[in-house]
Design brief:
With about 375 residues, the chain is an alpha/beta fold. The protein has two domains: about 190 residues, Rossmann fold; about 180 residues, 3-Layer(aba) Sandwich (Rossmann fold), CATH 3.40.50.2000. The chain has 13 helices and 13 strands. Strand 1, helix 1 and strand 2 form a beta-alpha-beta unit. Helix 9 packs across helix 12. It is globular.
Length: about 375
Amino acid sequence: MRIAVILHALRLGGGLAVGHGLLGALGRVGAEHEYFVALAAGRGYENVCAAIPSCRVSACDAASRLGIWKYRRLQLVRQVREFRPDVVLALGAHNALANPPCPQAVLVDSAQFFYPESSWGPVTTGERWLYRYHIHHLRRSLRHTKLLLAQTELARRRLIQTYDFPAAATALCPNAVLLGSEGPGDAQMPEPLRPHRDKFRLLCLARYMPHKNLEVIPEVFARFGRELPPCAAFLTIAQAQHKRAGGLLRRIARADVAGQVVNVGPVDRAQLGAYFRHCDALLLPTLLESFSGSYLEAMHFGTPILTSDLDFARQICGEAALYFDPHSPSSIRDSIVRLRNDAALHPRLVDLGHQRTSVLSLSWDQIAADLLPRLVGITR
């Protein structure tokens, strides 16, 4: 089978991890197939493709939105047709083809495509219109899509309802999280945490995105810092991640929360275990997720979860989390105090988390092995 994999718009964060993981697994599990891969240049995809026995590559080296649009319209469509695929697999709704030359499957991995705008967070006007354009593009593409893929059962139901898509033409393609085992450095507390070793430490593991709702964290400490037990929240953002990220960092610097809200910057995967092992909870006040790997990572490393009382979080975490209203600083305060003061709650959440990971944790190879027969099925 000749498979065209379109993922040039998966460039950052969770989308990039999905692109790397699923593409590599397809090359291993489906090594007998021929692949055409449209990828984002310089994001590590080239190394993944090099391990696939029969793989033709089209690299999009544009960085701007206009450049990416031109690549898709002027280069990609022609190259896909020249490859003459049996099936197109678009990883990410942004990558769907409006008029594919053969049956198409589309994985929707961004929650903005199936949640209302009120859930998007404080996006700029430009971002709002860009999301609307992408939703319009997906609607057009679904007219020529034979298989719609979602990462969770909840997302699948929402996609069916939002786009009036036939349920029989949908399937699950979950996210895999590369959990691994503890490394030798996990026993050592990371340097940025050491000045706070006597505090209750909260890890806010997230890139800056408007829907992550990170602005509420300094607000919690500014309003209720004296009511909280001695604790510190650690953000993992960088100013370059978003226009609003710098504003949040400046706000933290100006507010009277010194020593309580600390930005340690992006955490390298090799240090992930050490951060989880030496923090008392994952604090994630997000407003919107399709599938957050941070939940499974926290469960794997035995870190209790404090997160938003919203349907996507309950879909992944079940009873293995303590929930709060993400719009209410007092509700977040109460969850922190409860976890800190209830000696029995911590081990119970850890145990429930380990039970959840045993059910939810699939490898990329398992996911690819389930996906390939579905792709074969829509070509018949």
